[in-house]
C-alpha cells in the first residue's frame, strides 16, 4: 500500500503565506490521484477545503488554494488568519484504494 | 444541500460487531463514492473502505477481512459492519461522500470498544 507523506508541523505568521505538501511513495502526484485537502480543528469533524486538486467548496475561504507542484499536491494559504490554526490532511486516490497523509499541524503565530 | 447523518451505538464489547449507518439527504446514494473513515483518539485519519455507484466495494487491506460496507437505496442509507472488534478499533468513525461536487462528511460517531 502506498504511503502518503505530509510535513508534521508548520508555522506561519498572521498575514503570511505557507504551502503544505502531500507526497506519494509511488512517485509523482498527478491529477489522477484526485487530491483532497481537509481541515480539522480540535473536537470537530474534518471538513473538505479542496477536492480534485484545486476545486473549492462554497465554504472554502478564498485564501486557500490547491495545486500540483514539484511532483506533490500542494495546499497554499495566502494571508493566514488565526482561525486557520488547525490540522490539515490530504487524501490521495489510487487504483481502488484511498490513502491519507499523516496530517500537518499548522500553527499561526 | 448534502447532509450525512450518522447513527449507531457508541459502545461495543470486544469480539462483537460494530454497526454504523449513514443517512443521506441532498445527494444520490446510487452515485460515486461512499466511504467510511476512522480516527483513533489523538491520531490521524484512516480510510476503511467505500462503496461505489451502489455496487462496487473496496476496502483497506488491513481491515478487509473484518469490514463490510453496504447500501440501502430505498432508505438512502449506507452502512458499515466491522466484526471481531478489539480496543484498537476504538475511534471516531465518519461517513464521507466523494463526488464531482466535492467531499461531504458526517458528524462522526465515537465508538468505544470495552466490556
SSE succession of chain B? EEEEEEEEEEE
Report the mean per-residue pLDDT of chain A as an integer. Answer: 97
Terminal-residue CA separation of chain B: 39 Å
Radius of gyration of chain B: 13 Å
Query: Which two chains touch over the largest interface?
Result: A-B, 21 and 22 residues
Task: Provide tags for this entry.
heterodimer, A: 109 residues, mainly beta, seven-stranded mixed sheet, four-stranded antiparallel sheet, 0% helix, B: 115 residues
Walk me through what this model shows.
The complex is a heterodimer of chains A (109) and B (115). Chain A has 109 residues and is an all-beta fold. Chain A has strands spanning 4-6, 9-12, 17-24, 36-40, 47-51, 55-56, 64-69, 72-78, 86-93, 98-100, 104-108. Chain A contains no helices and eleven strands. In chain A, a hairpin with a 3-residue loop joins strand 5 (47-51) and strand 6. Chain A starts with a strand and ends with a strand. The model of chain A has no long low-confidence stretch (mean pLDDT 97). Chain B has strands spanning 3-7, 11-12, 18-25, 33-39, 46-52, 56-59, 67-72, 77-82, 91-99, 102-105, 109-113. Chain B has 115 residues and is mostly beta strands. In chain B, the strands form two sheets. In chain B, strands 2, 4, 5, 6, 9, 10 and 11 form a seven-stranded mixed beta sheet that branches. A four-stranded antiparallel beta sheet of chain B has the order 1-3-8-7, with no helix packed on it. Chain B is globular. The A-B interface holds A 1, 36, 38, 45-48, 51-52, 55, 57, 89, 91, 96-103 and B 35, 37, 44-47, 50, 58, 60-62, 92, 94, 98, 100, 102-108.
Question: Helices and strands in order, then pairings?
Answer:
The complex is a heterodimer of chains A (109) and B (115).
Chain A: E1 4-6, E2 9-12, E3 17-24, E4 36-40, E5 47-51, E6 55-56, E7 64-69, E8 72-78, E9 86-93, E10 98-100, E11 104-108
Parallel strand pairs in A: 2-11
Antiparallel strand pairs in A: 1-3, 3-8, 4-5, 4-9, 5-6, 7-8, 9-10, 9-11
Chain B: E1 3-7, E2 11-12, E3 18-25, E4 33-39, E5 46-52, E6 56-59, E7 67-72, E8 77-82, E9 91-99, E10 102-105, E11 109-113
Parallel strand pairs in B: 2-11
Antiparallel strand pairs in B: 1-3, 3-8, 4-5, 4-9, 5-6, 7-8, 9-10, 9-11
